[in-house]
Design brief:
Length: about 425
């Protein structure tokens, strides 16, 4: 009898322990208690009271922590070896825009890699401010424009998009145009630049392809524990686009807004943190490892993301799987690394997996750093109503609907960019 009771108790407690970690929590009352790390206190416990201290001590140590333990360091420098204008036209987007397709090439370790940036620029603007961001299925999916070149890089199969044998095809032209309000962007006087993320690093757990091998040491076959995963590689690609924008007279390189959705929203945040040339950053539904606070363990968790996407973060990040409480930082400090530049965090009501409240709270808890610079952030921990954006230097909205990028989102981003950058 005693043994039976013991066995039952054992099963019961292990079940509880198991479900605590393995069930996806969507219940606010089950969010664990935790202390939000103070962005204005150094790891050795000193208060950061001014911009100087922030920039000299706290910002570098936070950046270092995220580089070493979350996204991974880029292990060396690699400059553009050649730029080629592959195609251009002055008759795009109903005659309102010029189009350029620019190929950037890189060479090292007897290997090479190239990727193509699709750029639309409004005709009536001399040096255009720019939204730039990655797409998931190739440049030709963001528009019906028949002149957009189809990438021959590896792509995840998707029958409804006509992607079989990991090759993009004509069938997917324009299938994602609903996510890219190009005409609205052009009409508002902005350019749009986009790249297929698979050209920089195919999104699979394989470090023999993409950009990584170009920076391996002799005999290295995968990144070291503190070296770049795919998110850091994609961010690196965005910085190389910025290198190119600095040389293009049609683009205002001081007004490039880096945008990304979901895993590519995690990427835009990391790009904004690591490269201060980006004038503003937008994270759309970026969730775990993006804007959402990891310690809340709401929706997707660190363990689950590391298990399902082992290549996204550096190997060191696995230390925190089922162990978020040990993290000396949280994602609001990633947002704080973007200060004082404008940052927009957006969520969708039905996207519980990405933890909208956790995304909102990150914007809120990053605000003290913006305050150091006398910039306005999010002043209350009460979430705004759906479809009621709060647009300060730190901006936030939660819109109705699912995990997606909609015209509503773009309308907000344009309005906010006008106020933050264009009219300044
Ligand atoms: C998965 C993943 C998320 C990610 C999303 C996406 O849902 O769990 O972390 O943001 O894919 O990129 O679409």
């Amino acid at each position: 009898m005693k043994i039976l009771l013991f066995v039952l108790l054992f099963i019961f407690t292990t079940q509880i322990a198991f479900s605590q970690w393995n069930d996806v929590n969507y219940d606010e009352s089950k969010v664990p208690q935790f202390v939000v790390p103070n962005p204005l206190k150094t790891f050795d416990g000193r208060k950061v009271r001014n911009v100087k201290k922030w920039e000299k001590k706290r910002r570098p140590e936070l950046l270092e922590f995220f580089s070493e333990n979350v996204y991974g360091k880029v292990p060396g420098e690699l400059k553009i070896s050649s730029v080629e204008v592959v195609e251009e036209s002055n008759d795009a987007i109903n005659g309102k825009a010029n189009r350029k397709q620019i190929e950037l090439s890189f060479e090292k370790n007897d290997l090479n890699l190239d990727f193509t940036i699709l750029i639309y620029l409004p005709k009536n603007v001399e040096k255009a401010p720019l939204f730039m961001g990655y797409n998931f299925y190739g440049n030709h999916t963001v528009t019906e424009d028949v002149n957009v070149i189809i990438s021959d890089s590896w792509a995840r199969n998707n029958e409804s998009f006509g992607i079989i044998n990991n090759q993009l095809t004509e069938q997917s032209r324009g299938v994602r145009d609903n996510r890219w309000a190009i005409e609205k962007i052009i009409d508002a006087g902005y350019g749009l630049a986009t790249i297929y993320y698979g050209e920089i690093d195919p999104d699979k757990d394989d470090f023999t392809d993409g950009i990584h091998p170009l920076l391996y040491n002799d005999n290295q076959e995968e990144p070291a524990n503190n070296e770049w995963g795919s998110i850091a590689a994609w961010s690196w690609g965005l910085s190389r686009c910025m290198d190119y924008f600095e040389t293009d007279n049609d683009i205002d390189e001081s007004k490039v807004i880096v945008f990304g959705h979901s895993r590519l929203g995690k990427t835009s945040l990391w790009a904004g943190a690591t490269d201060q040339r980006f004038a503003a950053v937008i994270s759309n539904d970026s969730g775990c490892g993006g804007a959402a606070l990891s310690k809340r363990r709401f929706g997707e968790t660190v363990w689950r993301i590391n298990k399902n996407f082992p290549h996204w973060f550096c190997a060191n990040f696995k230390e925190y799987s089922k162990n978020e409480q040990a993290l000396p930082v949280d994602q609001h400090e990633l947002i704080a690394l973007i200060a004082p530049r404008p940052v927009y965090v957006a969520s969708a009501e039905d996207d519980k997996w990405a933890d909208p409240r956790g995304e909102f709270l990150s914007a809120f808890y990053a605000t003290p750093v913006y305050k150091l610079y006398e910039k306005e952030g999010i002043s209350t921990d009460k979430m705004p109503e759906v479809n009621q954006p709060v647009q300060n230097t730190v901006a936030y909205h939660i819109r109705t609907g699912k995990h997606d990028v909609t015209d509503f989102d773009w309308e907000q981003y344009i309005k906010w960019a006008d106020a933050q950058l264009k009219n300044n």
